[in-house]
Amino acid sequence: MKQLFEFFPIILFFIAYKVYDIYIATAVVIVATIVQVIYAWFKHGKVETMQWITLALVVVFGGATIYLHDEQYLKWKFSIIEWLFGLAFLGSHFIGQKTFIERMMSGNLTLPSLIWKRLNFSWASFFILVGFINVYVMYNYNTDDWVTFKTFIAPGLMIAFMVIQMLFLYKYIPDAEE
Questions:
Q1: Are residues 105 and 166 in the same domain?
Q2: pLDDT, tens only, 98-116
Q3: SS3 content of the chain, % helix, strand, coil (to 5)
């Protein structure tokens, strides 16, 4: 259910875009992201740092899109968020005792340090690559295609990447008999 709620703003964005236009859809995604953060605050008593950053970028770039009537600002927001994720994962190689991916998954999985580092680096690379793919799509395709990329293809790439990661990690998962 949590993963579905994470996609709540983008689903509403897509619907609003198809029914109205990019500017109404931008206003919808701003409001939906604010609602998402408020909900997280009341449900968990805190909001994760990346949710705050996402909210700030949605409000700033979405607001610029509406105010300046230029959809490029909204399109750039996606790449910037992906690059920030990538840089955060890369930075965790040098800051702290554990990489981001190890902090997130070490409660469920035990891996050698080198494997955690490789896994973390692959996630950083993935986010950075998706940011560049977004730039390519936004400059070489129309807005309809970009919305399709943002709504369906980018999440599909994430799912495919996660499946590849699971296949890679499968050999490190202990048997239930052990």
A1: yes
A2: 888 888 887 777 888 888 8
A3: 80, 0, 20
